[in-house]
Amino acid sequence: MLPFFGGIQVIHTPGHTAGHVSLYLRQSKTLIAGDSMYSVDGKLMGLHVPTALDPEMAQRSLKKYADYEITSVICYHGGVSTQDIQAQIGAL
């Protein structure tokens, strides 16, 4: 846990690359998903298989997000998603 902004949890989310990490900002309940998934018009689309180094590992990494209370997700490709995030994460 990094002691900034109310606590930042580093989540090891390999698959896109071996060392990929996502960041969970506890205070704002925001997930910075990086390249672990992408979104289109606010809908989380899951992993982008053509660019995943290890798609099976990447899919397992997405399941880790269910352990966090997330209200918004920032994807490096697609921007911010805020609608029904817990349900969207559950469907990945």
UniProtKB/TrEMBL annotation:
Q: Which residues form the Metallo-beta-lactamase domain?
A: 4-75
Question: Which Pfam family name is an example for this entry?
Answer: Lactamase_B
Source superkingdom: Bacteria
Q: Which InterPro entries match?
A: Metallo-B-lactamas, NDM-1-like, RibonucZ/Hydroxyglut_hydro
Reactions catalysed according to its record: 3',5'-cyclic UMP + H2O = UMP + H(+); 3',5'-cyclic CMP + H2O = CMP + H(+)
Task: Tell me the function of this protein.
Answer: Counteracts the endogenous Pycsar antiviral defense system. Phosphodiesterase that enables metal-dependent hydrolysis of host cyclic nucleotide Pycsar defense signals such as cCMP and cUMP.
* PANTHER family referenced in this protein's UniProt entry, alphabetically: METALLO-BETA-LACTAMASE DOMAIN-CONTAINING, METALLO-BETA-LACTAMASE SUPERFAMILY PROTEIN
Q: What is this protein called?
A: Metallo-beta-lactamase superfamily protein
Native source organism of the sequence: Brevibacillus centrosporus
Q: What is the lineage of its organism?
A: Bacteria, Bacillati, Bacillota, Bacilli, Bacillales
